[in-house]
Amino acid sequence: MRKKRRVAPSFIGLDSFMDIVTNVIGALFFVVVYAALSSLGAKGKLTLPLLSESATEPVTFECRKNTVIYPDLENFMKKLQEVIDRHKGQGSDAIMEALEKAQIKSDYYQLRNKLRVEQTAGPPGETGRELSAGSSNFRRRLAKLDPSKHHVFFIVRADSFEVFRTARSVAVEMGFKVGWEPFETNSHLSVGGGSGGDMRDRIFR
Amino acid sequence: MRRVRQRVFAPPSLFPFLSVLVCLIGTLIFLAVAVAPTSLEKAAAGIELEIIQGAHTHNKEPIILECSAGQARSLDGVYSFAESAEGAGSSFLSSLYSGPFTRFVENLSRYDQQKYVLFLVKPDGLSVFETLRGKLMQRNREKCVSSVFVIEELAAESVKQMQKELPGRVEYSDRTLSFYRRMSADERETLRKYFSTSYAHSAIDRLFEQSQSTPLWVDYGVELIPKNYEIKSVRQREAPEAKKGETNK
Question: How large is the ipTM?
Answer without folding.
Answer: 0.75
